[in-house]
Amino acid sequence: MVQFDSNSNSTTATHHSKPPDPLQLMLSESIHRFFTEYRSGSTDFSHFTSIFSRMLQSLPDAPLEFVWFYSAVTFHSTNKFSSPCSVSSSKDLFQLLVSCSTSCNAVKRISVLAPVIYELYPLAFGQKEFKREVESLLEGIVGYISICCGMEDDGNDDLSSRFGDLLRVWMVDRVGKEGEKRDDLKVFFPLVSEETREAISAGCGIRYLAGVVMCQAFLLRLCLKFGHGLPKLELEKDVHDCAVQMIAGFRKFHFLDIFLRMLLEPVLPVPSLVGHGNEVILRETLYDAAIKMDHTFLSPQGGNLLPDKQLKDLALTWSFVADNAIRSLRENGNQTKAISYINAFSESWLPAQLIKWVTSQTGMGDKARSLNVSTPVALLKWLLIIEDQGVKIFECDISKVYAKAVLCKSRVEYEIPVDKISGKYLGEDLACMVHERKEDKEADSDLEMIDSMDTVPLPAPCSMKSTAADGVRKRKEGSTVEGEIPVKCIKYHLCENLRREKLLPLAIGDGLSCGNSPSLDEYMRDMER
């Protein structure tokens, strides 16, 4: 499992000098009493709901833990013990959580929905008659989240120390295997990676939890696309279109961060749901959606003002994902699509921002517009060189080692046809592709080679020369037909130099604004119908 620094997750600090919060003390005592009464066989928790209902009405932006406790005891009283587990009870829970969080900020409205995904998960892959109902409800949940993502984001409270107890309140009726210790976080958040659960366990903010909820809803909805017996091409298109639509709607940093880190895991957290063969299809589809997404919604013009560190870390993670995607395509012989990914990478907004940040840290901000790197490997090579000169880029040793490992895997030379006029890689006529090096160096010597590389010149872009590597003979130039686009074949190293003369200008619009999105009230009225 690839692990990185836990980014901007805020940990819950314990301030011993502060007096105890009376509200938190009341919550803690109420949770304890609930467990005692539940174990004694009680199913009437109206005294809890009465007290917490008045409290929620008096608090303009109630803490998530209070919303959850009130909703949990209400749900257990009115649904779980009076009717069998069904999609209708999950829909009631969704509407209850929405109504209880109307006075909360947008990101908290998303975070409170975690119990709905927890309830829907076993239904989605249980009895087949539930599947269509679950899909319909999930579509409504995704739409509601997208509307919340378009609202102003003005809160990031830390989760309290009672968070784990509240998970057990929600799961009080779920009995694990006898004699087996239950992993509460894994049960409650089944559709995220172990790394994400560790970040939650260490203490995180509401925004991070909202990202977790979005990622789980995202994956669950995509998993439900499988199993309908669709032809492979039709299935891939359906899953891809759905993924792109949700990514465009879930325009939040923490969702993207969790989603991209998940793609670095060796296995997606879904194999038991879709099967190994479909997991491969899902991963390839998610690679495509991730590489070709429009990142400009993260810019100030797109309505976001991310701290430099968050933007830098996201760009690094995305570069790792892009390299994985390109490598996977090449291993499967899909060179045309691999080249399209390289073009998408070189034109993306994120690497441009990362280069801009690095050059500003080194006092060479004026050179950002004249510097460009064409592939993830070229970018990572340059970043490692800059870090060795004293600029802190990689937040932890593991991410730096991962970057070096990417370079070590890049032992293949490519001759890629380049359009002399536009500078674009061409996806056709790949006859001059792939010349594998004969030497197979040890990993350690590769790392030493990386550490001792000379600095890539920053001012002007390095022109790519068609010189042959040792032991590889140059190709003879063929004649060109009059009127044909002039093409030259160049040697292209994956740890290559820099290409193209300037960075693309920053996009002005994000193309993802809500526009005339329905209000939440209108949306919920439609859901109730």
From TrEMBL:
Region (Disordered): 1-22
Domain of life: Eukaryota
Ranges of Low complexity composition bias in the record: 1-14
Name of the protein in its database record: SNF2 domain-containing protein
Organism of origin: Hibiscus trionum (Flower of an hour)
